[in-house]
Design goal:
By secondary structure, the protein is an all-alpha fold. The chain contains six helices and no strands.
């Protein structure tokens, strides 16, 4: 049942993103940043934690999950370091994902040899 819950919640998040791409004039970059910010806001007001507990990876892997990870990192760092944690917690909690994105983007750039338009 855990796999099913992860599948339908993650699919619903992606479906909403696809509808936004198809039916609005929002660019994919704006949708991406909107999802991350919405993940932070939903975590801050306590709505996203139950979704993560219910859906697991279906809620933590999409972009809302990146915002969730950042918000949880800030929360933990503020509890440990005070106000300074508000500035460092988000990056330290998501550093692995950011490093992987940079690394794999570099590999893709070497493999596919991008050209300017």
């Amino acid at each position: 049942m855990n796999y099913f819950n992860a599948f339908w919640v993650g699919g619903l998040i992606c479906l909403i993103g696809q509808i936004l791409i198809d039916k609005t004039k929002l660019t994919p970059a704006r949708i991406l940043t909107g999802y991350v910010v919405m993940g932070i806001i939903l975590t801050a007001i306590g709505v996203y934690e139950p979704v993560v507990e219910y859906a697991g990876a279906g809620a933590t892997v999409p972009l809302l999950g990146f915002g969730y990870s950042m918000a949880k990192g800030v929360e933990k760092a503020v509890a440990a370091d005070g106000l300074l944690g508000a500035f460092t917690g988000g990056l330290s909690s998501t550093a692995g994902g950011i490093a992987a994105a940079v690394f794999f983007s570099l590999i893709a750039a070497f493999v596919f040899k991008p050209k300017t338009k």
